[in-house]
Amino acid sequence: MKNTLLTGIGNALVDIEFNVTEEELQAFDVPKSTMTLTGASRQSEIIASLNHREQHKSSGGSVANSIIAFAQFGGSAAFCSLLGDDTFGRFYTDEFNELGVTLNAHVASGLPTGSCLVLITPDRERTMITTLGVNIQFSRKNVDEQLIAQSEWLYIEGYKLSEEEGADAIEIAAFYARKHGTNIAVSCSDTFIVNEFGDRLESLLSSTDLIFCNEREGRSLANEENADDAYMALASRYRNIVFTMGAAGSKLKWNGKECDIPAYAIPVVDTTGAGDMYAGAFLYGVLHRQHPEFAGRLASYAAAQVVGQYGARLKANHIEIRDSILRTAATTND
Questions:
Q1: The domain spanning residue 93 has which CATH number?
Q2: Region 258-285: what's the mean pLDDT?
């Protein structure tokens, strides 16, 4: 009997958020609304230039955020990664302990815990500058076969494919999942993963049970200009897919059922973590045997609540949100 419903593998990052002007963002010379990898020294310089501003800090990373959301909705969850022997690493561990999520993270010396600088412009778009730190050392020796064997699902972060060691670790993790009958879900993570590491991604997706992508990632993955055409192409290619389109809602296919899920209108404050929240809430819904429309509506509503606040961690009560949507959405069990 498996004792964990969902285990994630991804980069462990401490998120540090600042509000900046368009001019300040341009001065940092990074593409807006994307994720850019940089060295620790460059990231430290940018943080130092903003240290007079109010900041918000939380343990994160894309899949980590989804795993936390899944657990806070009531699911049993674990997260596998790598931390540095430093203040950020201890902060990360303490938060996971407080959140009740099993953290399977070796502590390594020599490099710092990864961090992500999140810059929020007045239009509420977020631009991320990430230092992977010790995450670049994550290898197959850090993948726990027993943890995967004891999990119903494994959720893999596409960002891990950007490093040779990380890609190798993901390959062995997927092998363990197939060996032990563990289902695999994958987040495409970013268009640069699709565009720069497409061969690695396609190899992983060929054995995947569920794929998450946003519109930009989906159009790149399907090589289509139109969102509807991209979704149709991906839905015909893969078993299950979640295709998010921001204010235009989302499309999904789950076990042969297809649903169009509306977006919930809310004044935008900060888009950080919206996709991560969507994934965590959707996984909670479908893995607890709810109708995919309920899972999609729960995901859409929870993501909207994240967009209406600062930070990727939902401040509202997850259980109240879950039960409220459960009462109003179609919830016919499979």
A1: 3.40.1190.20
A2: 92
